[in-house]
Design goal:
CATH class of the largest domain: Alpha Beta
GO molecular function: ATP binding; DNA binding
Domain FtsK: 230-410
Binding site for ATP: 246-253
Largest sheet: 10 strands, mixed
Distance between the termini: 73 Å
Keywords: ATP-binding, Cell cycle, Cell division, Membrane, Nucleotide-binding, Transmembrane, Transmembrane helix
Protein name: Cell division protein FtsK
Number of strands: 18
Bound molecules: adenosine-5'-triphosphate
CATH architecture of the largest domain: 3-Layer(aba) Sandwich
Helix content: 40-55%
Structural class: alpha/beta
Length: 479
Amino acid sequence: MLRRLPGDEARNLVSTTPDTAVVFRPAVMQTPAIVTIVIWLARLLRGLIRTLWRHPIACTAALAPVVVTLTYGWRMAVVLAGFLPALGLSWVLLERDSFLRVVGWPLLAWWRLVWVYRRHWQPVMIVSGLGRHLRGRDYLPRLVKVRCTSWADLVTVKMLNGQAVKDWTDRADHLAHGFGARSCRVSIARAGRLVLTLPRHDPLAEPLPAVPIPEVASVGAVEIGRCEDGTPYRLKVHGTHVLIAGATGAGKGSYLWSAIRGLLPAMRAGLVQVWALDPKRMELSFGRALFGPRYAATPAECADLLEAAVAVMQERADRFGGNQRSHTPTVADPFVLVVVDEVAFLTAYQSDKGLRERTKAALATLTTQGRAVGVGVMAALQDPRKEVMNIRNLFPDKIALRLDESEQVDMVLGDGARDRGALADHISPVPELGAGVGYVRLETSPDPIRVRAAYVSDEDIRTMVAIFSTGRAGAHARG
Ligand SMILES: Nc1ncnc2c1ncn2[C@@H]1O[C@H](COP(=O)(O)OP(=O)(O)OP(=O)(O)O)[C@@H](O)[C@H]1O
């Protein structure tokens, strides 16, 4: 008690047992001044060593002028003060990335630590309920360190003993606005430690032009757009099935077309076939020449085409059985990607029950058995409810674009995805800002990542058709 209560507060604490006149008053011992001074000096020393250890660059920048002045006189300090900015400027101009990595981001991190996070830590923790103020003392989670990247602050915190990750994910909004960020994503660093990702600006706010068509035929992961950290976003299509959910105008088309664009050289080489189901006739019909006879628009044609894909799948399964367990695309056995725009129209909205059941059965068969024999499904839909799409869990990879309701996020990405920062219901409905922006949760990681697909314009699709039919890849590859 003596250690925990500041000043003489302990002296005023009295307690009684109920219904008696017995009074307990704690004994207060005066600590000798020398002990207090030694403790404060030890703390000061510890603080200094910790600051030097954690912020070597900032400390060097602050101490160097003093050391130079004391050692070589003030003239040398002035000469260096004029020389160093020129050196720094040359470094920035010649090697910007290394300058930012070594000097820029650590300095910014130090500034943000002092000016934003330390300054607001106590009030934000207390008001959000993540810290407690008990009997004159603050019990706060520990702010361990701040790192800066080009677009976000990564704040490592040590939770209070007894706190759960959910306590933090539930307060992501408090944290974001408390520290002046648009959003806050919570991920686990290790037991008891979390990393809060607080964006300083949105690197995906500008639409991206279509990704150049690859030079080489490949069935590997296709570049679709960009991730929030600026790295290319590559979507695996071979050996999986992909479901893309988003409200009308969310930009589902740009995912379908970017995937087809990335596969174009492989389509020309005969290693990939794209089978297109276009019940709305507004999306895939634009590049119809790419699909040849494997294009369907009416519900009956769609059911027939899906059953044809099932037949290919079963024929391959019979042939491969006992010989090979995975598929390598060849001209004889190309990778078949069945692309379905607005799959709910076929599985829920169409009136013909017979066709509906045939479609559902074929889709379920393809998504459960297709990936090992080189048949994949990439489907887009607006409404992710189970009544509309009861096989959504058969798609290993899912992408949530702008959604109308917060509950729909977990329906698409799985339980807890929204708590972990997949705020698909907050994506802007303004096409320039939000179309093509989405959250992806990969099989290997529970933390959703924010991405934006490149926009494939009508002109880009026309170019793709020209390349595919005339073979002028080189002329248009960067088009
Ligand atoms: N990746 C993108 N980047 C920027 N703008 C985009 C992107 N994708 C689409 N848009 C814009 O948003 C509009 C709607 O896109 P799109 O038709 O692909 O949405 P959708 O989700 O397929 O909608 P619907 O379900 O109604 O067909 C496009 O006309 C375009 O202007």
